Amino acid sequence: MNINDKVSTGLEGFDQVIDNLRLGDNVVWQADSVSDYKKMVGYFAARAGKENMRLVYIRFGSHEQILEESPKVMVYRIDANKGFESFATEIYNVIKKEGRRVLYVFDCLTDLLKYWHSDLMIGNFFKATCPYLYELDTVAYFAIIRNFHTYGTIAGIRETTQLLLDIYQVNNKTYIHPLKVWQRYSPTMFFPHLIQGQEAVCITASSDASELFTNIRRSENRLDYWNIIFNRAKKMLNFSLKRQEATKKRLMYMLIGSDSRMFELCVRYLTLKDILLTASREVGTGFIGGKSVGMLLARKIIEIEGEERFTPLLEPHDSFYIGSDVFYTYIVQNGWWRLRAKQKTKEGYYKYAPELKDKLLHGSFPKDIREQFVQMLEYFGQSPIIIRSSSLLEDNFGNAFAGKYESVFCVNQGTPEDRYEAFEQAIRTVYASTMNEDALNYRMNRGLFELDEQMAILVQRVSGDQYGEYFFPHIAGVGNSSNLYVWDESIDMNSGMLRLVFGLGTRAVDRTDGDYVKVVCLDDPLRIPPMNYEDQNKFSQHRLDTLSFTDNALVIRDLDEILPLDLKTDKKLFMSPDYITAARMRELGYTDRRIPDILDFKKLFTDTEIMPVMREMLALLSKAYDYPVDIEFTANLKKDNSFKINILQCRPLQTKGLGNTVKIPELANEKDCFFSGKGSFMGGSVRLSIDFVVFVQANTYLELNEQGKYAVARQIGLINKEIKGRNVMLVGPGRWGSTTPSLGIPVHYAELCNMTVICEYSSEKAGFMPELSYGSHFFQDIVEAGIFYVAIFDGHKDVIFNPDRILKEENMLPSLLPQSNQFSDVIHIAKSNGMEIYSDIVTQKLLCR
């Protein structure tokens, strides 16, 4: 070894014992106090100063300062309270900036327990940081306080570090006992040594060694600090609620996060007992995430504000929570932290995401976490479960993250080994979804890319029952306490609305291909959205999502295949005779066929109390939140029409607000406007000026093959980038964001996120129809971004639509995007020439001229 690769501890005698420190060494001192560690740092720093070596001090603890800043000591102050990821990333950036052959002194790692409350995360930080220090040929000093950490944490540190040294003060004497010295050995190296000045005297005599160690306190195997805190908190249940309050808040900071509007609601409604019950069902440590918090809070609000009236109607939940610390542990222990740190930078944000996503899909979990997973699965048995994302930023005021992260059903069939592997892979899939393009764009566009986005997971029993080989709830959907999409001036916005489906609720949160959900105004559930009466069957649900025990998967089935099964309740609650279709069949000469059914839920609305209950529960939640809310729910019924409702999640409803009353100009001539109507818009009362209109023509779009339709969607994305910063109205046939090109244009949200207004227009000839899909993930994105939405039902009463107002103007597509000239017959971009759009939420009037 080159003599220049050796570094002194500052104690010449101890240097001889361990054959010096080497470049690359991480040195962990296990001490009884910070002052003992400070003494060793003093020797190290003094020698570094004499040899003119660069010394960096990383200050994060609340204990006494280890080193003072000076020309020879560079001090970086890092805020550990920001959380593991921000802390570890900031230190990574410091190490990267300082470069090679630097000496480091870190504050005592045990102090991190005050901020993170978790031994596991201290071990993760050490494992994430030390390999990088080693690669850069540094020497780094760390300390941990003896008897404060679990054996698992110490074992992880021992495995990672190059030197692990015990330091003791016994009878005013200092002893150092090397426990690990990597790639060095001597016959006396691992004996304890008495430090006398610069000398290190080896304690070899058995009598001296036994006398020394009998004076040293050793602990039994300790619980993680996290568990110690919660175990102590249980004792507070014996005291009054007032005395419990401080303990409850401390635990909430650990499980829920920092002060926020959601935190304040949790303080108001959740008890210490509720928090302890939640913690008892957590795997690992850390936050449980926004989705879990929203679900727990909603159920508690309904219980308290409903004065127990709704409690008998709620299906009990027995959810588990995989703590956010498990996400980081998974990344660190698989060796991906460096990649994660590079991906978190602005230049690496998109560059490294695909690689990290691939790795997240193929990692392994620590043994203790796997054991907890097994216990959870044994609890659920073969009941279907769903593994749902529950990130820190999800379902909060201002950021819904609707549909950005994955949820995965586990039908839970097969051998225990098969079921376990499917469960593990579901977790990996949720973790990997943090690197999905939509999620990355969402965080970037909302200025969140630098924030910690720790991924917790909510594991729920799937609500429903078995019917033949299938498992599903009778009904499911999305509920909004405010109906922001109204098409009739008689609609009471404050009564709320539902997007209702038969079967699993996946169809209610996405714009489904070739199928329609039931839009329910809770002030009058029988009211029909804008459509011709004879088109009710066409614009109803014809398929359902269900779990198949035979296929062990989520499948789509035709209603005709499911309805013959015994549904364990009255099928007439969901189905009504479709006399209109029957009449058409008779006209075609089919006189011997039975009258078909239509899924319209009429008897569910008239013969059960589900709709009034949903309306009241939504009102209770909205009042408690002091804000409109958005929920996901299921309901299951029995033969006597009794029912149980399951609240799966609740979040603040993303809404731009109603705005002030807007006076709508009078039209002298119908041809003076682009469009006008009553209702069928979202975005409140507005007066917006429009610079450009991007218009997709229905007939020419329809003539394209499927590949051509997808190409049009990609062109919209290019236009979206090109016109950023201008007021642009995007107008297209059918559904924007459809997964089926024959029903609309299959854009992603990121391909129209810069638009000011988006319009969907109907074309009876081409078969395109807008869908009232407020409550879907796509529409959540639009409302969050403040994009005004309009549905134009051409030919309906009170609707004026003049496409020629735009199409007669010069098409600017070739000049704006010369490479897109081939799409000029489909996409028409025109200057608006002073066009404005007016809407008034009170009168429900809409005008664009």
TrEMBL record:
Top-level taxon of origin: Bacteria
Coiled-coil intervals: none
Annotated ranges, domain Pyruvate phosphate dikinase AMP/ATP-binding: 288-670
Gene Ontology molecular function: any one: kinase activity
Keywords from the named record: Kinase, Pyruvate, Transferase
SUPFAM superfamilies, sorted: Glutathione synthetase ATP-binding domain-like
Name of the protein in its database record: Pyruvate phosphate dikinase-like enzyme
InterPro entries noted in UniProt: ATP_grasp_subdomain_1, PPDK_AMP/ATP-bd
